[in-house]
Amino acid sequence: MSVRNTMRGFFAGVARAFAFLRVAIANLFVGLLLLAFVAAVLMGGSQGPNVPDDTALVVAPKGAIVEQTGTPDPVPALLGVGGSGQVAAADLLRAIERATSDDRVAVLSMDLSDLWYVSTAHVESLGSAIRAFQDAGKKVIASSENYTQDRYLLASFADEVYLHPFGQVMLPGYGMYRDYYSGLLDKLKVNVHVFRVGTYKAAVEPFTRPDMSPEAREANLALVTDLWGSYVNSVAENRNMTPEAVRRFADEYDMLLEDVGGDPARAALEHGLVDELLTREALRERLAAEVGEEDADDLSRTGFPNYLRATGPELPASGDRIAVVVAQGAIQMGDQSRGSVGSDSTARLIRRAREDDAVKAVVLRVDSPGGSAFASEVIRQELELAQTAGKPVVASMAGVAASGGYWISATADEIWASPTTITGSIGVFSMIPGLEESFSSIGITRDGVGSSALSDSYDLFSGVTERMGTILQATVDHTYERFLNLVARGRDMSVEDVDAVGQGRVWTGRKALELGLVDGLGDLERAVEAAARLADIEDYSVEVMEKPLSTGEQLLMRFADNLGLAESATADWVRRALAGVEELHALNDPGHIYAICASCPGR
Fold this sequence. Notes:
Oligomer: single chain
Low-confidence stretches: 1-8, 37-47, 78-83, 563-571
Number of helices: 23
Distance between the termini: 30 Å
Shape: globular
Number of strands: 25
Mean pLDDT: 86
Largest sheet: 8 strands, mixed
Number of domains: 2
Structural class: alpha/beta
CATH class of the largest domain: Alpha Beta
CATH architecture of the largest domain: Alpha-Beta Complex
CATH topology of the largest domain: 2-enoyl-CoA Hydratase, Chain A, domain 1
Strand content: 15-25%
Protein backbone atom coordinates (compact mmCIF):
# COMPACT_ATOMS: atom_id res chain seq x y z
CA MET A 1 0.00 0.00 0.00
CA SER A 2 1.43 3.41 -0.94
CA VAL A 3 2.11 6.20 1.53
CA ARG A 4 -0.17 8.45 -0.48
CA ASN A 5 -3.23 6.23 -0.32
CA THR A 6 -2.73 5.12 3.27
CA MET A 7 -2.27 8.61 4.71
CA ARG A 8 -5.00 10.13 2.61
CA GLY A 9 -7.35 7.46 3.88
CA PHE A 10 -6.21 7.95 7.46
CA PHE A 11 -6.85 11.69 7.60
CA ALA A 12 -9.93 11.61 5.39
CA GLY A 13 -11.43 8.90 7.60
CA VAL A 14 -11.12 11.06 10.69
CA ALA A 15 -13.19 13.82 9.10
CA ARG A 16 -15.53 11.69 6.95
CA ALA A 17 -18.36 11.45 9.48
CA PHE A 18 -18.22 15.17 10.16
CA ALA A 19 -18.26 16.00 6.45
CA PHE A 20 -21.21 13.65 5.86
CA LEU A 21 -23.12 15.28 8.70
CA ARG A 22 -22.52 18.73 7.23
CA VAL A 23 -23.76 17.71 3.77
CA ALA A 24 -26.80 15.96 5.19
CA ILE A 25 -27.80 18.96 7.27
CA ALA A 26 -27.26 21.33 4.37
CA ASN A 27 -29.47 19.23 2.09
CA LEU A 28 -32.12 18.97 4.80
CA PHE A 29 -32.49 22.72 5.07
CA VAL A 30 -32.24 23.74 1.42
CA GLY A 31 -35.97 23.25 0.86
CA LEU A 32 -36.90 25.18 4.00
CA LEU A 33 -34.49 27.95 3.13
CA LEU A 34 -35.93 28.24 -0.37
CA LEU A 35 -39.42 28.65 1.06
CA ALA A 36 -38.20 31.23 3.55
CA PHE A 37 -36.40 33.14 0.81
CA VAL A 38 -39.46 33.24 -1.43
CA ALA A 39 -41.62 34.39 1.48
CA ALA A 40 -39.15 37.15 2.32
CA VAL A 41 -39.14 38.37 -1.28
CA LEU A 42 -42.94 38.34 -1.48
CA MET A 43 -43.36 40.20 1.81
CA GLY A 44 -40.43 42.54 1.31
CA GLY A 45 -41.63 44.04 -1.94
CA SER A 46 -39.34 45.83 -4.34
CA GLN A 47 -38.73 48.90 -2.19
CA GLY A 48 -35.09 49.11 -1.12
CA PRO A 49 -33.99 50.39 2.29
CA ASN A 50 -34.16 54.11 2.88
CA VAL A 51 -31.54 56.27 4.60
CA PRO A 52 -33.20 59.21 6.38
CA ASP A 53 -31.44 62.43 7.26
CA ASP A 54 -29.48 62.66 10.52
CA THR A 55 -29.13 58.91 10.79
CA ALA A 56 -26.65 56.91 12.82
CA LEU A 57 -24.75 54.34 10.79
CA VAL A 58 -24.57 51.24 12.98
CA VAL A 59 -21.67 48.85 12.50
CA ALA A 60 -22.41 45.77 14.59
CA PRO A 61 -20.36 42.85 13.24
CA LYS A 62 -21.42 39.41 14.42
CA GLY A 63 -18.67 36.79 14.56
CA ALA A 64 -15.30 37.25 12.90
CA ILE A 65 -14.21 40.01 10.56
CA VAL A 66 -12.55 38.19 7.68
CA GLU A 67 -10.98 38.98 4.33
CA GLN A 68 -13.60 36.99 2.44
CA THR A 69 -16.79 35.36 3.67
CA GLY A 70 -17.01 31.68 2.88
CA THR A 71 -19.65 29.02 2.56
CA PRO A 72 -21.45 28.78 5.91
CA ASP A 73 -21.27 25.58 7.88
CA PRO A 74 -24.69 24.48 9.24
CA VAL A 75 -23.25 22.20 11.93
CA PRO A 76 -22.11 24.92 14.40
CA ALA A 77 -25.45 26.69 13.95
CA LEU A 78 -27.45 23.61 14.87
CA LEU A 79 -25.15 22.98 17.84
CA GLY A 80 -26.09 26.39 19.15
CA VAL A 81 -22.78 28.12 18.58
CA GLY A 82 -23.80 30.63 15.95
CA GLY A 83 -24.35 30.99 12.27
CA SER A 84 -21.81 31.78 9.59
CA GLY A 85 -20.11 34.18 12.00
CA GLN A 86 -18.30 36.07 9.25
CA VAL A 87 -18.32 39.69 8.13
CA ALA A 88 -16.20 40.82 5.20
CA ALA A 89 -13.77 43.58 6.16
CA ALA A 90 -14.30 45.09 2.70
CA ASP A 91 -18.03 45.56 3.42
CA LEU A 92 -17.31 47.43 6.64
CA LEU A 93 -14.71 49.60 4.95
CA ARG A 94 -17.04 50.35 2.03
CA ALA A 95 -19.87 51.38 4.38
CA ILE A 96 -17.67 53.71 6.44
CA GLU A 97 -16.05 55.24 3.37
CA ARG A 98 -19.42 55.94 1.75
CA ALA A 99 -20.81 57.41 4.96
CA THR A 100 -17.85 59.75 5.27
CA SER A 101 -19.14 61.90 2.39
CA ASP A 102 -22.85 61.18 2.95
CA ASP A 103 -24.55 64.19 4.55
CA ARG A 104 -27.40 61.98 5.74
CA VAL A 105 -25.09 60.11 8.14
CA ALA A 106 -24.42 62.14 11.27
CA VAL A 107 -22.59 59.66 13.45
CA LEU A 108 -20.94 56.24 13.29
CA SER A 109 -21.95 53.85 16.07
CA MET A 110 -19.87 50.70 16.51
CA ASP A 111 -21.65 48.04 18.58
CA LEU A 112 -18.97 45.42 19.21
CA SER A 113 -20.79 43.13 21.64
CA ASP A 114 -21.00 40.26 19.13
CA LEU A 115 -17.55 40.59 17.60
CA TRP A 116 -15.38 37.64 18.61
CA TYR A 117 -12.36 37.98 16.34
CA VAL A 118 -10.64 40.56 14.17
CA SER A 119 -6.97 40.55 13.23
CA THR A 120 -4.86 43.57 14.08
CA ALA A 121 -4.21 44.00 10.36
CA HIS A 122 -7.92 44.47 9.71
CA VAL A 123 -8.21 46.78 12.73
CA GLU A 124 -5.49 48.97 11.20
CA SER A 125 -7.43 49.23 7.93
CA LEU A 126 -10.71 49.97 9.73
CA GLY A 127 -8.92 52.48 11.94
CA SER A 128 -7.76 54.40 8.89
CA ALA A 129 -11.33 54.57 7.59
CA ILE A 130 -12.58 55.69 11.02
CA ARG A 131 -10.00 58.49 11.12
CA ALA A 132 -11.13 59.69 7.68
CA PHE A 133 -14.73 59.72 8.96
CA GLN A 134 -13.62 61.81 11.94
CA ASP A 135 -11.62 64.16 9.72
CA ALA A 136 -14.88 64.88 7.89
CA GLY A 137 -16.18 66.38 11.15
CA LYS A 138 -18.29 63.40 12.16
CA LYS A 139 -18.32 61.64 15.50
CA VAL A 140 -17.60 57.96 16.16
CA ILE A 141 -18.78 56.16 19.27
CA ALA A 142 -18.05 52.59 20.32
CA SER A 143 -20.00 50.44 22.73
CA SER A 144 -19.93 46.90 24.02
CA GLU A 145 -21.33 45.02 26.95
CA ASN A 146 -17.87 43.51 27.39
CA TYR A 147 -14.61 44.30 25.66
CA THR A 148 -12.29 41.51 24.66
CA GLN A 149 -8.81 42.48 23.56
CA ASP A 150 -9.78 42.46 19.87
CA ARG A 151 -12.93 44.48 20.45
CA TYR A 152 -11.17 47.07 22.54
CA LEU A 153 -8.41 47.73 20.00
CA LEU A 154 -11.05 48.58 17.39
CA ALA A 155 -13.10 50.59 19.89
CA SER A 156 -10.09 52.67 20.88
CA PHE A 157 -10.24 54.49 17.53
CA ALA A 158 -13.62 56.00 18.47
CA ASP A 159 -14.12 59.49 19.91
CA GLU A 160 -15.98 58.01 22.86
CA VAL A 161 -15.95 54.47 24.24
CA TYR A 162 -18.91 53.25 26.30
CA LEU A 163 -19.19 50.16 28.49
CA HIS A 164 -22.18 48.54 30.17
CA PRO A 165 -22.12 48.99 33.98
CA PHE A 166 -22.00 45.20 34.38
CA GLY A 167 -19.30 44.81 31.74
CA GLN A 168 -15.53 44.68 31.77
CA VAL A 169 -12.44 45.32 29.66
CA MET A 170 -10.01 42.40 29.54
CA LEU A 171 -6.51 42.90 28.13
CA PRO A 172 -4.68 39.61 28.78
CA GLY A 173 -1.96 40.28 26.22
CA TYR A 174 -0.81 37.80 23.59
CA GLY A 175 0.22 34.25 24.28
CA MET A 176 1.02 31.09 22.37
CA TYR A 177 -0.02 27.97 24.21
CA ARG A 178 -0.58 24.54 22.70
CA ASP A 179 -1.70 21.11 23.85
CA TYR A 180 1.00 18.43 23.77
CA TYR A 181 0.05 14.80 23.16
CA SER A 182 3.34 12.90 23.30
CA GLY A 183 2.56 11.48 26.76
CA LEU A 184 -0.82 10.17 25.58
CA LEU A 185 0.71 8.78 22.40
CA ASP A 186 3.38 6.99 24.46
CA LYS A 187 0.70 5.37 26.60
CA LEU A 188 -1.15 4.28 23.47
CA LYS A 189 2.13 3.05 21.96
CA VAL A 190 1.69 5.24 18.90
CA ASN A 191 4.91 6.13 17.11
CA VAL A 192 4.88 9.46 15.30
CA HIS A 193 7.44 9.57 12.51
CA VAL A 194 8.51 13.16 11.89
CA PHE A 195 10.55 14.54 9.01
CA ARG A 196 11.22 18.26 9.02
CA VAL A 197 13.58 21.08 8.15
CA GLY A 198 13.79 24.22 10.25
CA THR A 199 15.06 24.76 13.78
CA TYR A 200 11.92 26.74 14.61
CA LYS A 201 9.42 24.60 12.65
CA ALA A 202 7.35 23.68 15.69
CA ALA A 203 4.21 22.32 14.01
CA VAL A 204 5.18 18.74 14.91
CA GLU A 205 6.20 19.38 18.53
CA PRO A 206 2.85 18.50 20.16
CA PHE A 207 3.28 14.96 18.85
CA THR A 208 6.96 14.50 19.67
CA ARG A 209 7.57 16.16 23.04
CA PRO A 210 5.66 17.13 26.21
CA ASP A 211 6.48 20.83 26.10
CA MET A 212 7.61 23.72 23.94
CA SER A 213 11.18 23.44 22.69
CA PRO A 214 13.69 26.17 23.68
CA GLU A 215 13.88 27.29 20.05
CA ALA A 216 10.12 27.60 19.70
CA ARG A 217 9.92 29.36 23.07
CA GLU A 218 12.53 31.90 21.94
CA ALA A 219 10.80 32.63 18.64
CA ASN A 220 7.27 32.72 20.07
CA LEU A 221 8.25 35.01 22.94
CA ALA A 222 9.86 37.46 20.52
CA LEU A 223 6.74 37.40 18.35
CA VAL A 224 4.17 37.96 21.12
CA THR A 225 6.36 40.68 22.66
CA ASP A 226 6.45 42.51 19.33
CA LEU A 227 2.68 42.13 18.82
CA TRP A 228 1.89 43.28 22.36
CA GLY A 229 4.12 46.31 21.98
CA SER A 230 2.22 47.32 18.84
CA TYR A 231 -1.11 46.81 20.60
CA VAL A 232 -0.13 48.87 23.65
CA ASN A 233 1.22 51.72 21.54
CA SER A 234 -1.91 51.82 19.36
CA VAL A 235 -4.27 51.92 22.34
CA ALA A 236 -2.14 54.52 24.10
CA GLU A 237 -2.14 56.77 21.05
CA ASN A 238 -5.86 56.37 20.37
CA ARG A 239 -6.90 56.93 23.97
CA ASN A 240 -4.36 59.68 24.75
CA MET A 241 -2.77 57.51 27.43
CA THR A 242 0.80 56.53 28.09
CA PRO A 243 1.96 53.04 27.10
CA GLU A 244 2.88 52.49 30.76
CA ALA A 245 -0.72 53.16 31.82
CA VAL A 246 -2.03 50.59 29.34
CA ARG A 247 0.54 48.01 30.49
CA ARG A 248 -0.33 48.68 34.13
CA PHE A 249 -4.01 47.99 33.48
CA ALA A 250 -3.10 44.65 31.91
CA ASP A 251 -0.36 43.62 34.36
CA GLU A 252 -1.93 44.83 37.60
CA TYR A 253 -5.58 44.15 36.83
CA ASP A 254 -6.10 42.12 39.99
CA MET A 255 -4.88 44.96 42.22
CA LEU A 256 -6.86 47.56 40.28
CA LEU A 257 -10.00 45.49 40.83
CA GLU A 258 -9.35 45.31 44.57
CA ASP A 259 -9.03 49.09 44.68
CA VAL A 260 -12.58 49.51 43.30
CA GLY A 261 -14.23 46.76 45.31
CA GLY A 262 -14.12 44.18 42.53
CA ASP A 263 -16.11 46.27 40.03
CA PRO A 264 -14.48 45.69 36.60
CA ALA A 265 -16.53 48.36 34.82
CA ARG A 266 -15.49 50.98 37.35
CA ALA A 267 -11.86 49.87 37.05
CA ALA A 268 -11.95 50.46 33.28
CA LEU A 269 -13.62 53.85 33.77
CA GLU A 270 -11.24 55.10 36.44
CA HIS A 271 -8.20 53.94 34.50
CA GLY A 272 -9.31 55.86 31.39
CA LEU A 273 -10.04 52.94 29.07
CA VAL A 274 -13.70 53.93 28.69
CA ASP A 275 -15.42 57.31 28.83
CA GLU A 276 -18.72 56.38 30.44
CA LEU A 277 -20.76 53.46 31.78
CA LEU A 278 -24.13 53.26 30.02
CA THR A 279 -27.00 50.79 30.14
CA ARG A 280 -28.66 49.77 26.89
CA GLU A 281 -31.40 52.37 27.27
CA ALA A 282 -28.96 55.09 28.27
CA LEU A 283 -26.90 54.25 25.20
CA ARG A 284 -29.96 54.69 22.97
CA GLU A 285 -30.63 58.08 24.55
CA ARG A 286 -27.02 59.15 24.09
CA LEU A 287 -27.04 58.07 20.45
CA ALA A 288 -30.31 59.96 19.88
CA ALA A 289 -28.76 63.09 21.35
CA GLU A 290 -25.80 62.75 18.98
CA VAL A 291 -28.13 63.01 15.96
CA GLY A 292 -30.18 65.83 17.49
CA GLU A 293 -33.19 63.87 18.76
CA GLU A 294 -34.61 64.49 22.22
CA ASP A 295 -36.56 61.24 22.34
CA ALA A 296 -34.74 57.93 21.88
CA ASP A 297 -37.85 56.57 20.13
CA ASP A 298 -37.22 59.05 17.32
CA LEU A 299 -33.68 57.82 16.76
CA SER A 300 -32.92 56.88 13.18
CA ARG A 301 -30.42 54.03 12.83
CA THR A 302 -29.23 52.29 9.69
CA GLY A 303 -27.29 49.04 9.89
CA PHE A 304 -24.31 48.80 7.57
CA PRO A 305 -25.78 45.95 5.41
CA ASN A 306 -28.93 48.02 4.72
CA TYR A 307 -26.80 51.11 4.16
CA LEU A 308 -24.76 49.33 1.52
CA ARG A 309 -27.94 48.19 -0.24
CA ALA A 310 -29.44 51.68 -0.02
CA THR A 311 -26.38 53.38 -1.47
CA GLY A 312 -26.32 51.02 -4.42
CA PRO A 313 -24.17 48.10 -5.57
CA GLU A 314 -20.66 48.55 -6.83
CA LEU A 315 -20.70 49.53 -10.50
CA PRO A 316 -19.37 46.84 -12.84
CA ALA A 317 -15.67 47.26 -13.47
CA SER A 318 -14.83 48.82 -16.81
CA GLY A 319 -11.73 49.99 -18.62
CA ASP A 320 -8.36 49.00 -17.19
CA ARG A 321 -8.73 46.83 -14.12
CA ILE A 322 -6.64 45.47 -11.27
CA ALA A 323 -7.77 42.02 -10.19
CA VAL A 324 -7.74 41.07 -6.52
CA VAL A 325 -7.66 37.35 -5.71
CA VAL A 326 -8.12 36.37 -2.06
CA ALA A 327 -6.22 33.42 -0.58
CA GLN A 328 -7.75 32.88 2.84
CA GLY A 329 -7.44 29.86 5.11
CA ALA A 330 -5.53 26.60 4.86
CA ILE A 331 -4.01 25.89 1.45
CA GLN A 332 -5.41 22.61 0.13
CA MET A 333 -5.33 20.53 -3.01
CA GLY A 334 -8.26 20.52 -5.40
CA ASP A 335 -11.33 22.68 -5.79
CA GLN A 336 -12.33 24.42 -2.56
CA SER A 337 -15.32 26.57 -1.66
CA ARG A 338 -15.20 30.35 -1.49
CA GLY A 339 -13.37 31.55 1.58
CA SER A 340 -10.82 28.73 1.26
CA VAL A 341 -7.67 28.21 -0.80
CA GLY A 342 -7.59 25.39 -3.33
CA SER A 343 -4.89 24.54 -5.84
CA ASP A 344 -7.53 24.27 -8.57
CA SER A 345 -10.08 26.91 -7.53
CA THR A 346 -7.58 29.64 -6.61
CA ALA A 347 -5.39 28.95 -9.66
CA ARG A 348 -8.51 29.17 -11.83
CA LEU A 349 -9.26 32.69 -10.54
CA ILE A 350 -5.68 33.79 -11.23
CA ARG A 351 -5.88 32.28 -14.71
CA ARG A 352 -9.09 34.17 -15.36
CA ALA A 353 -7.29 37.40 -14.48
CA ARG A 354 -4.36 36.49 -16.69
CA GLU A 355 -6.58 35.76 -19.71
CA ASP A 356 -8.63 38.95 -19.31
CA ASP A 357 -7.06 41.64 -21.51
CA ALA A 358 -8.63 44.40 -19.41
CA VAL A 359 -6.81 43.20 -16.28
CA LYS A 360 -3.44 44.93 -16.15
CA ALA A 361 -2.16 43.64 -12.79
CA VAL A 362 -3.01 41.07 -10.11
CA VAL A 363 -3.04 41.58 -6.34
CA LEU A 364 -2.97 38.40 -4.27
CA ARG A 365 -4.54 39.15 -0.88
CA VAL A 366 -3.17 36.52 1.51
CA ASP A 367 -4.60 35.61 4.91
CA SER A 368 -3.31 32.06 5.31
CA PRO A 369 -1.09 30.05 7.68
CA GLY A 370 -0.13 27.73 4.82
CA GLY A 371 -0.89 24.09 4.13
CA SER A 372 -0.05 21.76 1.29
CA ALA A 373 3.38 22.47 -0.26
CA PHE A 374 2.19 21.02 -3.58
CA ALA A 375 -0.91 23.22 -3.67
CA SER A 376 1.15 26.27 -2.71
CA GLU A 377 3.48 25.69 -5.65
CA VAL A 378 0.59 25.20 -8.09
CA ILE A 379 -0.83 28.59 -7.08
CA ARG A 380 2.58 30.29 -7.19
CA GLN A 381 3.23 28.93 -10.68
CA GLU A 382 -0.09 30.32 -11.89
CA LEU A 383 0.92 33.74 -10.55
CA GLU A 384 4.24 33.43 -12.36
CA LEU A 385 2.37 32.77 -15.61
CA ALA A 386 0.56 36.08 -15.11
CA GLN A 387 3.92 37.80 -14.70
CA THR A 388 5.21 36.10 -17.85
CA ALA A 389 2.15 37.49 -19.66
CA GLY A 390 3.30 40.98 -18.68
CA LYS A 391 0.97 41.52 -15.73
CA PRO A 392 2.62 42.63 -12.48
CA VAL A 393 1.76 40.61 -9.37
CA VAL A 394 1.68 42.19 -5.93
CA ALA A 395 1.16 40.18 -2.74
CA SER A 396 -0.81 41.89 0.03
CA MET A 397 -0.59 40.21 3.44
CA ALA A 398 -3.46 40.55 5.91
CA GLY A 399 -3.40 39.05 9.42
CA VAL A 400 -1.23 36.06 8.57
CA ALA A 401 0.77 35.01 5.51
CA ALA A 402 3.16 32.40 6.79
CA SER A 403 4.78 29.20 5.54
CA GLY A 404 2.66 28.19 2.52
CA GLY A 405 1.10 31.65 2.71
CA TYR A 406 4.56 33.11 2.18
CA TRP A 407 5.39 30.48 -0.46
CA ILE A 408 2.60 31.68 -2.77
CA SER A 409 3.77 35.28 -2.26
CA ALA A 410 7.51 34.68 -2.60
CA THR A 411 8.04 35.56 -6.27
CA ALA A 412 5.58 38.45 -6.51
CA ASP A 413 6.94 41.68 -7.98
CA GLU A 414 6.27 43.37 -4.63
CA ILE A 415 5.11 42.17 -1.22
CA TRP A 416 3.18 44.43 1.17
CA ALA A 417 2.32 43.54 4.76
CA SER A 418 0.69 45.11 7.78
CA PRO A 419 3.08 45.97 10.63
CA THR A 420 1.44 43.20 12.68
CA THR A 421 1.09 40.59 9.93
CA ILE A 422 2.45 37.23 11.06
CA THR A 423 4.67 36.01 8.25
CA GLY A 424 7.79 33.99 7.50
CA SER A 425 7.72 30.42 8.87
CA ILE A 426 9.86 29.31 5.94
CA GLY A 427 10.13 25.62 6.71
CA VAL A 428 8.72 22.23 5.72
CA PHE A 429 7.65 19.04 7.49
CA SER A 430 6.01 15.67 7.02
CA MET A 431 4.47 13.59 9.79
CA ILE A 432 3.19 10.01 9.68
CA PRO A 433 1.71 8.03 12.60
CA GLY A 434 2.60 4.39 13.16
CA LEU A 435 0.42 2.01 15.18
CA GLU A 436 2.67 -1.04 14.98
CA GLU A 437 3.47 -1.19 18.71
CA SER A 438 -0.09 -0.35 19.70
CA PHE A 439 -1.52 -3.18 17.59
CA SER A 440 1.17 -5.58 18.70
CA SER A 441 0.32 -4.95 22.37
CA ILE A 442 -3.20 -6.24 21.78
CA GLY A 443 -2.12 -9.21 19.67
CA ILE A 444 -2.48 -7.83 16.15
CA THR A 445 0.49 -8.44 13.85
CA ARG A 446 1.04 -8.08 10.13
CA ASP A 447 3.02 -10.24 7.70
CA GLY A 448 3.22 -10.85 3.98
CA VAL A 449 5.36 -10.66 0.86
CA GLY A 450 6.07 -7.94 -1.66
CA SER A 451 7.49 -7.65 -5.14
CA SER A 452 10.06 -4.94 -4.40
CA ALA A 453 12.05 -3.23 -1.69
CA LEU A 454 9.38 -0.61 -1.06
CA SER A 455 6.38 -2.92 -0.97
CA ASP A 456 6.36 -2.77 2.84
CA SER A 457 7.54 0.85 3.03
CA TYR A 458 4.66 2.00 5.20
CA ASP A 459 1.29 1.13 6.58
CA LEU A 460 -0.37 1.75 9.93
CA PHE A 461 0.34 -1.79 11.11
CA SER A 462 4.05 -1.96 10.41
CA GLY A 463 5.13 1.70 10.60
CA VAL A 464 7.77 3.42 8.47
CA THR A 465 10.77 1.41 7.35
CA GLU A 466 14.27 2.89 7.51
CA ARG A 467 14.38 3.03 3.72
CA MET A 468 11.06 4.89 3.57
CA GLY A 469 12.21 7.26 6.30
CA THR A 470 15.26 8.13 4.21
CA ILE A 471 13.03 8.83 1.21
CA LEU A 472 10.67 11.08 3.17
CA GLN A 473 13.46 13.07 4.81
CA ALA A 474 15.15 13.54 1.43
CA THR A 475 11.86 14.78 -0.02
CA VAL A 476 11.37 17.23 2.85
CA ASP A 477 14.97 18.47 2.48
CA HIS A 478 14.46 18.96 -1.26
CA THR A 479 11.19 20.83 -0.74
CA TYR A 480 12.89 23.16 1.75
CA GLU A 481 15.68 23.81 -0.73
CA ARG A 482 13.08 24.71 -3.35
CA PHE A 483 11.39 27.02 -0.85
CA LEU A 484 14.71 28.77 -0.09
CA ASN A 485 15.54 29.17 -3.77
CA LEU A 486 12.10 30.61 -4.58
CA VAL A 487 12.42 33.18 -1.80
CA ALA A 488 16.00 33.99 -2.80
CA ARG A 489 14.93 34.56 -6.40
CA GLY A 490 11.84 36.55 -5.52
CA ARG A 491 13.51 38.70 -2.87
CA ASP A 492 16.88 39.09 -4.61
CA MET A 493 18.66 37.53 -1.63
CA SER A 494 21.23 34.78 -1.33
CA VAL A 495 20.04 31.32 -0.34
CA GLU A 496 22.22 31.57 2.77
CA ASP A 497 20.58 34.83 3.82
CA VAL A 498 17.11 33.35 3.33
CA ASP A 499 18.07 30.29 5.35
CA ALA A 500 19.27 32.54 8.16
CA VAL A 501 15.84 34.18 8.50
CA GLY A 502 13.99 30.98 7.57
CA GLN A 503 14.29 27.75 9.56
CA GLY A 504 10.55 27.92 10.25
CA ARG A 505 10.74 31.12 12.31
CA VAL A 506 7.81 33.56 12.28
CA TRP A 507 8.14 37.34 12.13
CA THR A 508 5.86 40.35 12.31
CA GLY A 509 5.44 42.40 9.16
CA ARG A 510 7.49 45.19 10.70
CA LYS A 511 10.42 42.83 11.36
CA ALA A 512 9.98 41.17 7.95
CA LEU A 513 10.52 44.57 6.32
CA GLU A 514 13.84 44.92 8.18
CA LEU A 515 14.86 41.44 7.05
CA GLY A 516 13.99 42.05 3.41
CA LEU A 517 11.09 39.58 3.31
CA VAL A 518 8.58 42.29 2.31
CA ASP A 519 8.85 45.54 0.37
CA GLY A 520 6.58 47.84 2.33
CA LEU A 521 4.05 48.23 5.12
CA GLY A 522 0.48 49.02 4.17
CA ASP A 523 -3.01 47.64 3.66
CA LEU A 524 -4.74 46.31 0.56
CA GLU A 525 -5.26 49.80 -0.80
CA ARG A 526 -1.53 50.46 -0.75
CA ALA A 527 -0.89 47.16 -2.51
CA VAL A 528 -3.40 48.05 -5.24
CA GLU A 529 -1.67 51.40 -5.70
CA ALA A 530 1.65 49.58 -6.02
CA ALA A 531 0.15 47.26 -8.66
CA ALA A 532 -1.11 50.27 -10.63
CA ARG A 533 2.32 51.87 -10.45
CA LEU A 534 4.00 48.70 -11.71
CA ALA A 535 1.45 48.39 -14.52
CA ASP A 536 1.90 52.09 -15.36
CA ILE A 537 -1.82 52.87 -15.24
CA GLU A 538 -3.58 55.76 -13.49
CA ASP A 539 -7.24 55.37 -14.43
CA TYR A 540 -8.43 51.95 -13.31
CA SER A 541 -11.04 50.04 -11.32
CA VAL A 542 -10.57 47.17 -8.88
CA GLU A 543 -12.28 43.82 -9.44
CA VAL A 544 -12.35 41.16 -6.75
CA MET A 545 -12.30 37.83 -8.52
CA GLU A 546 -13.99 35.20 -6.40
CA LYS A 547 -15.85 31.98 -6.77
CA PRO A 548 -19.60 32.75 -6.78
CA LEU A 549 -21.86 31.23 -4.18
CA SER A 550 -24.46 28.81 -5.46
CA THR A 551 -28.14 29.50 -4.78
CA GLY A 552 -28.13 26.88 -2.04
CA GLU A 553 -25.05 28.44 -0.41
CA GLN A 554 -26.64 31.89 -0.50
CA LEU A 555 -29.79 30.58 1.14
CA LEU A 556 -27.77 28.74 3.76
CA MET A 557 -25.82 31.93 4.51
CA ARG A 558 -29.03 33.87 5.10
CA PHE A 559 -30.32 31.13 7.39
CA ALA A 560 -27.06 30.88 9.32
CA ASP A 561 -26.76 34.64 9.78
CA ASN A 562 -30.26 34.81 11.24
CA LEU A 563 -29.38 32.29 13.94
CA GLY A 564 -27.02 34.76 15.61
CA LEU A 565 -24.15 33.87 17.90
CA ALA A 566 -24.07 32.26 21.30
CA GLU A 567 -21.35 33.65 23.53
CA SER A 568 -20.32 30.97 26.02
CA ALA A 569 -17.37 28.88 27.02
CA THR A 570 -19.12 25.85 25.54
CA ALA A 571 -19.63 27.62 22.22
CA ASP A 572 -15.96 28.52 22.06
CA TRP A 573 -14.94 24.94 22.89
CA VAL A 574 -17.19 23.54 20.15
CA ARG A 575 -15.82 26.01 17.63
CA ARG A 576 -12.25 24.98 18.46
CA ALA A 577 -13.14 21.28 18.33
CA LEU A 578 -14.76 21.63 14.91
CA ALA A 579 -11.78 23.65 13.72
CA GLY A 580 -9.51 20.78 14.76
CA VAL A 581 -11.48 18.36 12.62
CA GLU A 582 -11.28 20.77 9.70
CA GLU A 583 -7.49 20.96 10.12
CA LEU A 584 -7.23 17.19 9.75
CA HIS A 585 -9.52 17.27 6.73
CA ALA A 586 -7.28 19.92 5.12
CA LEU A 587 -4.19 17.70 5.22
CA ASN A 588 -4.53 16.43 1.66
CA ASP A 589 -1.11 17.03 0.10
CA PRO A 590 -0.39 14.13 -2.29
CA GLY A 591 3.16 13.78 -0.99
CA HIS A 592 2.25 14.61 2.63
CA ILE A 593 4.68 17.55 2.62
CA TYR A 594 3.36 20.61 4.43
CA ALA A 595 4.37 24.22 4.83
CA ILE A 596 2.18 25.22 7.79
CA CYS A 597 2.66 27.77 10.55
CA ALA A 598 1.36 25.93 13.62
CA SER A 599 1.39 28.94 15.94
CA CYS A 600 -0.42 31.29 13.56
CA PRO A 601 -4.07 32.32 13.90
CA GLY A 602 -6.43 31.18 11.16
CA ARG A 603 -5.81 27.50 11.75
